[in-house]
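thread: overnight batch results

M.L. [08:02]
morning all. the overnight job finished for the chain we discussed friday. pasting input first so we're all looking at the same thing
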Amino acid sequence: MSVFEELVVGDKKIVLREPRSISDYRELMDVQLRIWGMPDYSEAVTYHMIIAGHRNGGVVIGAFEEDTGRAIGLVYSVPAYRDGLVYLYSHLAGVVPEYRFLGIGYRLKLLQRRLALEKGYRLIEWTYDPMQSSNAFFNIVKLGVIVRKFYRDYYGELMDEINRGMPSDRFIAEWWIKSRRVEKALRERVYGPSIEKVMELNPLKATNVVIREGFPRLLDIVLDNSNDLVVVEIPGDLSVLKKVSQQLVLDWRLKLRRVFEYYINSLGYTVVGFTSHVQSGIRRSYYILWRRSLDEILSGAVPWS
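M.L. [08:03]
and the structure it wrote out:
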C-alpha cells in the first residue's frame, strides 16, 4: 500500500497511510487508549474489528511516527446504510495529546475524504459532543459539516477521561463530501462570520448566558419558532468548566438538550455555522442554526452572505 502523505512535526516525520500489517492494526487499537484516556481495552475498538471494517468497504488511516512505527493518530470508518443511502460512518478520529493542534487531524480527515470519494461515497457521518467548542469549530467551520440530528445520551456513560461522569449527548455530523458547501470550506478556508455580523441579522437568541465569577452560566433558554435564524451559545472551554464544577456542566448540558431537541429534532433547523471570540479573557462560542432546505444549504448558501 502506498504512502499517502508525509509531514514533519518538530523533529519527527509523520506518515499518514492505511495500515499494512497486523502490527499496524494493533497499533491503531493501542493508540485509542492514549488519545481518549481509556482505562483499558474495554472502551476501545479491537484490532480485528478495525481489520474487518477496513477490508469490507471502510476507510482506515493511521498517523505513524516513521522512525518508531508507533501510531499517534487514526481515522476508523465503516460502511453504513439509512433510507436507501449507503454512506461512511466515521466512528473514531483522533490524535494523541502531544501531537494535537498541529494540523494532523485535519490532514487525516482530508485523506479520509479522498479515499471515500474514490470508493464512491458522498456522505460521511460521525458523532461529536455539541458542547465541545474546539470540535464544533473543526467540524463545522474547517470541514463544512452540517448538523440535522441531536441524540441524548447516545452511548450511555463512557468511562474515558474526556466523557466520564456525563451523559453522552451527541450531534450527528453530516459531511457531504461532494457538495459545494464542503468544497468551498476546504478551498477558501473562510472561518465564518463574527458574532457581531450574525447579530446584525436579528436572530433569535435561544440561550441567556451571564458571566459570574469568571465562568459562563446558562440562566435560561428560549423555545420559539418565530425566526428562521437562531443563535445558541455553548461553553467556550468545556475542559475548564469541568474543573470548576461538574454540576455546572450538567446544568448546561440538560438545558442545551432541550434547545437542540426543540430546534433541530422537532422543527428541522440545521446547524450551518459556528463562531467564537474572546471577551474580557473568556471565550464565548455560538452555533448558528438556520431553517432552510438541505439542497440550499449544500449549495453553499449561508444567512450572513
